[in-house]
């Protein structure tokens, strides 16, 4: 049995991390039996989630998980796509993972109201005398990471514009298709759903959410994916 180590559902999303949601979606698309387990962060081989344990073989990182599933179980998540479509799908994935992700992190962690609604809940298990210190430490660490990555150096308006352009690019590729590259989900849909569902999360009041809501096809896409793959998942209340 495959075990996927996760943070668990949060904010009305399948998982607090879009990378965990991506891995979970890949397993659903593969049709493989698996179980999700929480609490594995301390044992994570790379210090991050997700990772999976496939009968003793441990694989960390959502992209490496995809490659493991493809190689081990002879799955082609992009079956039927042309080489050009495969390239486009990969480019969309990496835009979201390596650029858009950091804009979402900024919106949730560096803006007090959003932090209070969301990430602050991660610290409930920390004893209250040191909880505030732990929050400040982690938020400061994330600000440093964003600065090093580069997006944290931009003004809020410029950062919102960059994230909005990412959202528009996804909407442009999706067009009027039911899934990113056509009539059935491909591997990149696992990533696109994870990030667009997060962008549209009603719990957070952000320019990113406003940008995503301006594209009806994206809103419909996320609703379609939720209904198909997470029919029992309840949405978060609006901010």
UniProtKB/TrEMBL annotation:
Residues 18-114 form the Thioredoxin-like fold domain. Residues 165-225 form the Metaxin glutathione S-transferase domain. It comes from Cupriavidus basilensis. It comes from the Bacteria. This is Failed axon connections protein. It holds the Pfam family GST_N_4. The lineage of its organism: Bacteria, Pseudomonadati, Pseudomonadota, Betaproteobacteria, Burkholderiales. PANTHER family: FAILED AXON CONNECTIONS-RELATED, METAXIN RELATED. InterPro entries: FAX/IsoI-like (IPR026928), Glutathione-S-Trfase_C_sf (IPR036282), Glutathione_S-Trfase (IPR040079), Metaxin_GST (IPR033468), Mito_Protein_Transport_Metaxin (IPR050931), Thioredoxin-like_fold (IPR012336), Thioredoxin-like_sf (IPR036249).
